[in-house]
Amino acid sequence: METEAKRRRSLRSLVQVAGPMGGGDEDPDPVAGFLSWCGRVGLELSPKVAVSREGTVAGYGMVTRESVQPGELLFTVPRAALLSQHTCSIGGLLERERGTLQSQSGWVPLLLALLHELQAPASPWSPYFALWPELGRLKHPMFWPEEERRRLLQGTGVPEAVEKDLANIRREYYSIVLPFMEAHPELFSPRVRSLDLYQQLVALVMAYSFQEPLEEEDDEKEPNSPLMVPAADILNHLANHNANLEYSPDCLRMVATQPIPKGCEIFNTYGQMANWQLIHMYGFAEPYPGNTDDTADIQMVTVREAALQGTKVEAERLLLHERWDFLCKLEMVGEEGAFVIGREEVITEEELTTTLKVLCMPAEEFREFKDQDGWEDGDREEDSLTITDIPKLRASWRQLLRDSVLLTLQTYATDLKTEEDLLSNKEAYAKLSWREQQALQVRYGQKMILHNLLELTS
After folding, report:
1. What average pLDDT does the segment 10-33 reach?
2. Strands 49-52 and 44-45
3. Would you list the DSSP string of 225-279?
4. Which one of 1, 32, 73, 101 has the lowest number of neighbouring Cβ atoms within 10 Å?
5. How far apart are CA 389 and CA 383, in angstroms?
6. Helix axes 158-172, 146-153, angle to 10 degrees
7. CB under 8 Å to 447, separation ≥6 — which residues?
8. Distances from the Cα of 356 to the Cα of 85, 396, 449, angstroms
């Protein structure tokens, strides 16, 4: 497997109850302790796999001792070994207080479970914590200095996402988490009543937790709460992954999806994640062109701005705002929304198609459209918005899309040529800091998608 397509981890140091929380010495062999714990809790690893630092792309990982075929079981995690709000030692209390722990994220009960178990002297999950990354060295942009984060990631959408995260974390901590811990001092020592620690655990849950998918018949229910899955969270990420986690009533099973030769690393996937999402949630980006799921965003308000640039008189501007308000009523656009463009397809095809059509249609047609509250069912636009068909769009559509892309490119601090020069110069690239390299990959991937749109709309 290529190391460029890996999930970067900060696993150079250990976090364990006997370390940061308990003040004792680190376990000299955390893998042996973890494997012994697996045996006690019924977490069964195939004899064909091993937890190791050797042969992995970074830190601890899982490699094959023997070749593995698709469909082979790699390990089984009983539900009792999962760490969640329900399985932790204060699960009963968290359930009784569920009403007071409601939050926007929905993560508070799990985070409180982690805060308690980390400092509990006899936590049954201590050997599992020993394989966690060091909390003080997580690489998420939320831990970068604000100036550096804005400078390196300007235009990518990451600084804005991080600012929202930090505001939500602070609000959640002071309004829900800290009052709960202070109400139960016997369960939470003063050492864990820390906003910094809470923020670190939010980042860890963001990067390492799993969320069990809902059954098809339950798709209108609230999403399942996140949970920590020992062994599964050791696996690194690869878009072309070779293993997949399966859920059943009694256990979770990691199953091979591809042939894995002896001595190769086992990779899971987090799903279809753009580079800006990877660096935001997991602290790394895949080097171009490795991430085939990469996307670029065009803010919806940017399209409105581009359309306003084409108006000449006040009446046209008023009509443009009327069109926009109607798109809002149709729930096609919003002040904080974005049109998402992938390498091969427009992810938000319906929203962008409708927006371009409404903003570009003649005034009379818009009046008729508005009177009908939109098109009737089955009234489909003949134009397509897949990437390869963009050149076939009407000229007015292409021009508005092109103007929107140009405005979007202006939000970055550097141009595409600057990024290309850095990437093509191995010596210069090697001199960049790790953060600079990751941010460059995010920016470059997005700009390549946007410049491709420029070519297709010219």
Report:
1. 50
2. unpaired
3. PPBB-TTGGGSEE-TT-SEEEEE-SSEEEEEE-S-B-TTPBPEE---S--HHHHH
4. 32
5. 8
6. 150
7. 296, 409, 412, 415, 416, 419
8. 46, 9, 19
Q: Which of 232-241, 273-282, 305-314 has the lowest mean pLDDT?
A: 232-241
Buried b (16+ CB within 10 A) or exposed e, 122-152: ebbbbbbbbbbbebeebbbbbbbeeeebbeb
Could you identify the residue written with the tokens 């906003």? 195
* Residue entry with tokens 């938000």: 348
Compute the distance between CA of residue 191 and CA of residue 436 in angstroms, rounded to an integer: 34
- Backbone φ and ψ for 454, nearest 5 degrees, come out as -60, -45
pLDDT at 375: 65
Place of tokens 């290309």: 420
Which residues face 73 on adjacent strands? Answer: 255
314 contact partners, CB below 8 Å, separation of at least 6: none
pLDDT of residue 222: 84
Give backbone dihedrals phi and psi of 138, rounded to 5 degrees, phi first.
-65, 145
State the pLDDT confidence band at 386, using cuts at 50, 70 and 90.
confident
| Contact call for residues 396 and 360 (beta carbons, < 8 A) | yes
Q: Evaluate if residue 20 carries a pLDDT over 70.
A: no
pLDDT (0 to 100) of residue 7: 32
pLDDT surpasses 50 at 12? no
Which pLDDT band, with edges at 50, 70 and 90, does 14 fall under?
A: very low
Q: Which two tokens stand for residue 382?
A: 């003949």
Model confidence at 311: pLDDT above 60: yes
Closest to 7 measured CA to CA, from 235, 245, 231, 226: 235
d(CA 447, CA 408): 9
- 28's tokens: 């000299």
pLDDT over 90, % of the chain: 82
Tokens describing residue 373:
């509250």
- Answer yes or no: are the C-beta atoms of 290 and 239 closer than 8 Å: yes
Helix (H) or strand (E) holding 77: strand 73-78
Query: Nearest-5° angle of CA 128, CA 134, CA 135?
Result: 100
3-state secondary structure of 341: strand
Element (H, E) at 297: strand 295-299
